[in-house]
Amino acid sequence: MIVIIKQDVPKEEISKLKNQLEGDFNVSVSEVVGTHTTILGLVGDTAQIDIGAVRSNEIVEEVKRVQEPYKNANRKFHPDDTVIKVGKQSFGGKDFQIIAGPCSVESEDQILEVARRVKASGATMLRGGAFKPRTSPYSFQGLREEGIRLLLEAKKETGLPIVTEIMSEAYLDLFADVDVIQVGARNMQNFELLKELGHCDKPILLKRGLSSTIEEFLMSAEYIMAGGNSNVILCERGIRTIETMTRNTLDLSAVAVLKHVSHLPVVVDPSHGTGVTWLVEPMSKAAISCGADGLIIEAHNNPAKALSDGAQSLNLDQFSGVMTSIKRQIGFEGKHLLSADGDLEV
Ligand code: PEP
Ligand code: MN
Fold it and tell me: Residues 157, 116: contact at Cβ < 8 Å?
């Protein structure tokens, strides 16, 4: 961290601040003295220092961090890719993951039909919302506990690991048999929830907030990791921009940035990222090419009747068609697709 001192501040004032910083934060401070301006360089664990508090000192002109505030998620401190095992599957290694299923779990027939069909097309995990974060309180809110029970039934029949969203730490006990817990975009900065998830050892699929920067996204991962859970999978799901022709703007550059600055696996959600079914295929291919470790795609047995996100959900034939092109791309990028039964498909 660098502290730039205002012009022509007396030496004694600067020494006082230097001693104060060393005493308060257990860092070493070196001084670079120019003709009019002095710069203090702080070395040590500066992540705990509140920039605003240092900036509020009346002799301080500016404070800048030279090191990223995220430590656990930072590739500098963990050069190798993190690989997160989920049953036979893994995120972050050579294997690619395709998580598919409806936005919401709606009934036993629906989730079983979708699970069977997406598995037959090559999906490696099943998604489905039981707790739904809806913009309107009058929209379908999810089957909640019953939804999780139905997902577990689909898992029992197909062998597909299940991925489902948690909205409050109060329901954590219901997620005991869930394979991957999803934190939705709206809860990316629900810090109490993140802290609680830091105390369990389940893989967490953390979605990027609707208007969050990449650094804020990584700081949310940091919350989970700081609690002791390093099984965090990052998910780019589109952000709000000026664009109106797509539901969100799928930020694929974020995928390359995340893979560069962090060792955590990255998954892309082209369904929420675009809100448009025909964009799922090209965006999936692009995501694979820019380094993603997996995709999460909404697929429904009858999108026109879906209780949520029907407009962006592929029907099961469309999903099968998109999978053919996704598999080709996975092979082209030298990654593998292991079927739910453990056979190498690509
Ligand atoms: C979802 O996965 O259905 C969902 C609500 O996603 P997001 O949190 O990205 O909007
Ligand atoms: Mn959805």
Answer: yes
